[in-house]
Amino acid sequence: MFAAENGLKGDPRLQAISDAIRVVPHFPKQGIMFQDITTLLLDHKAFKDTVDIFVDRYRDMGVSVVAGVEARGFMFGPSIALAIGAKFVPLRKPKKLPGEVIAEAYELEYGTDCLEMHVEAVHPGERAIVIDDLVATGGTLSAAIRLLERVGAEVVECACVIGLREVQGQRRLDGKPLYILVEPREVDGCY
Amino acid sequence: MMQRAFVFSSSNSISLQLSTPITPPVNAVFPERNRGWIAPYSPLQPPELRLRNYQRALPPVLCSGSDSVTNQQQMASQDERDPRISKISSVIRVIPDFPKPGILFQDITTLLLDIKAFRDTIDLFVERYRGKDISVVAGIEARGFIFGPPIALAIGAKFVPMRKPNKLPGEVISEEYSLEYGTDKMEMHVGAVQAGDRALIIDDLVATGGTLSAAIRLLERVGVHVVECACVIELPELKGRERLGDTPLFVLVSSA
Question: Which HAMAP family does this chain map to (chain A) (predicted)?
Answer without folding.
Answer: Aden_phosphoribosyltr
